[in-house]
Write a structure and sequence with these properties.
Blueprint (H helix, E strand, L loop, with lengths): L8 H30 L1 H6 L1 H15 L8 H6 L1 E4 L9 H30 L6 H17 L3 H12 L5 H5 L3 E4 L11 H34 L23 E4 L4 E3 H8 L17 E3 L5
Antiparallel strand pairs: 1-2, 3-4, 3-5
Helix pairs in contact: 1-3, 3-5, 5-6, 6-9, 7-9
Organism: Acyrthosiphon pisum
Protein name: RING-type E3 ubiquitin transferase
Keywords: Membrane, Metal-binding, Peroxisome, Peroxisome biogenesis, Protein transport, Transferase, Transmembrane, Transmembrane helix, Transport, Ubl conjugation pathway, Zinc, Zinc-finger
Length: 286
């Protein structure tokens, strides 16, 4: 295996982009099937779960079956373990896939449970509660930036594209012996520095925003929302954002109705013919 060279960041990046295109295509087909079977309300409520299912299905048919993903085959690279001499075992691959698909959601869920437990635990002092909740809330605000932080490291060393692969030490080598194309790596290092600067600003903003959020929660505890169903989007079942009016007279979020019209040519409520040109954004609408 020593004749096989480590793959470069350009090949890994193209492979990941190709895989993303493919499991997004699976996601669209799965959404279309469930749309006919369960309806648009079910699809929109379970959008994240359907996307995760699409990812799991794709990786189960490729990585867990000891096969290259189509992106890896396209760029002629192969996954290997920490030593670089063997492909990852079943447990290692399974752990990596589960961490990649559900990792962020599980971390946020665990932090939410911790905050809830601390808030209603009478044996913990008020000062300790404030400190624990502050730390947990800060970490929670930084979780969405975890993948961006790993991306900075990837652009610099070209090893692990996702934090899940970094955690489980899964790297890539070229599938062709002695193959090692000459590619300029300084471009990726410049990109790493620029991405790191942008990420630093986002992390500072997230850290300084946390105390304000906690203060608002204490001063204005959550109350039942008196909002009527008429102010909710029929697709996402949430308060409408950027309210838009269809030609047939129904109101939706701008993003929701246009996402719907990518795969359908009718109104989700009255089933009349509808296309994106027949949707108008409303200004100053309350």
């Amino acid at each position: 295996m020593s004749a096989f060279n480590s793959s470069g960041p350009a090949e890994i990046l193209r492979a990941e982009q190709k895989d993303e295109e493919l499991y997004e295509r699976i996601n669209r087909q799965l959404c279309g099937f469930l749309l006919k079977l369960k309806g648009h309300v079910f699809v929109n409520v379970n959008k994240k779960n359907i996307f995760c299912t699409s990812q799991l299905l794709y990786y189960a048919l490729t990585t867990l079956s000891k096969l290259q993903t189509l992106g890896e085959e396209y760029t002629k690279i192969v996954q290997v373990g920490k030593t670089g001499k063997h492909i990852p075992g079943l447990m290692q691959s399974t752990g990596m896939i589960l961490a990649h698909v559900f990792g962020d959601r599980l971390i946020i869920l665990a932090l939410d449970r911790l905050i809830y437990y601390v808030q209603y635990n009478k044996s913990i002092t008020s000062q300790a509660k404030d400190q624990i909740i502050h730390i947990a809330t800060t970490i929670k605000s930084l979780v969405p930036l975890l993948q961006s932080l790993n991306r900075v490291l990837f652009y610099w060393d070209g090893s692990f594209y996702t934090w899940a692969k970094r955690f489980f030490f899964i790297k890539y080598i070229y599938a062709i012996p002695w193959y090692h194309p000459k590619r300029p790596l300084h471009v990726f290092k410049i990109l790493s520095v620029l991405t790191g600067m942008h990420l630093s600003v986002l992390m500072i903003m997230a850290v300084f925003k946390t105390p304000k959020v906690q203060k608002n929660v204490k001063e204005h505890p959550s109350q039942p929302n008196p909002m009527s169903s008429s102010s909710k989007c029929s697709l996402c079942l949430e308060p409408r954002q950027n309210t838009s009016l269809s030609f047939c007279g129904h109101l939706f979020c701008w993003y929701c109705i246009h996402e719907w019209l990518q795969t359908n040519n009718f109104c989700p409520i009255c089933r009349k013919a509808l296309n994106p040109r027949m949707v108008v954004p409303l200004q100053n609408f309350t």
